[in-house]
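Consider this today:
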Amino acid sequence: MGTQQQAKFPRVGVIANGRPDTLFEAVRQSFAQHGYVEGRDILIEARFAHGHLDRVPELVAELVGLNVDVIVSLGAVGPAAAQKANTKVPIVFVAVIDPVAVGFAATLERPGGNITGITTFDPQQATKQFELLRQVFPNLTRLAILSDEDIPRVEGGNPLEKANDTAARSLGVRPQWLKVKGPIPDLEGAFTAMKNERAQALLVLDVPVPIIHQKRIAELAATYRLPTMFLGGRRMSEAGGLIAYGTGLLDTLPRIPVYVEKILKGAKPGDLPIEVLSQHILIFNLKTARTIGVTIPPELLKRADQVIE
């Protein structure tokens, strides 16, 4: 296929915080399932930060320089970098906590500007997950919460962190906030701090650095015999934590080509409503439960969408 013919294909840039993995493959498959086969109907220019989130602005600039027709961002760092660069290239995001609060959109119904996409942020989820933790651990009073130092700052605090802090305190649980920084986070230091504060459980937020290092976090949690809840549903359950809960990032990926196609056909991102996906998938890992000596109440196992033996 000649270069001239290739140039006629729509060019889609993809920005990922981590490295090439099953997540990126799932993005490619989502396009193929919508009739956009890479190399036949579309060209995908992918850039990976490999955990160096400070490199994302440079990667966005590369994609803009390639004259891509649209940028797909797996996370909030890409749109934030694009905003600072003042680029007009349309952007479709997933895994952005609250696009209105972080300034990517005027409203969910009519974002305005050049950014739109899919969010899984549910303000009620924090309360539900703490109620769930309390059902598993009735005496829970001290909880470590692992977040990311590099997630975009917003006035008044990050909405995900605020929701979890409020929900914890409303149930009489004292949160111990720990924020790690990539690309080589001090996870051992974080777990030592949890031990020193006598944390009874760990909640891992669905943010870039913990997502990239989920397996190592689960390994350390097992070593410290610390019950761990990962947010993000099925994909996070692969890490090996005790509980996975929430809407998985993988659930949002099939919606990406829908937005991209509309934009390629002339729709303005600012006119495309931001979609909110909320599926409270609950998964228990009984293998991990046995390893750390925890018993999951039978009534909760009956409610689970999946039980890993």
Observations:
- The two ends are 49 Å apart (CA to CA).
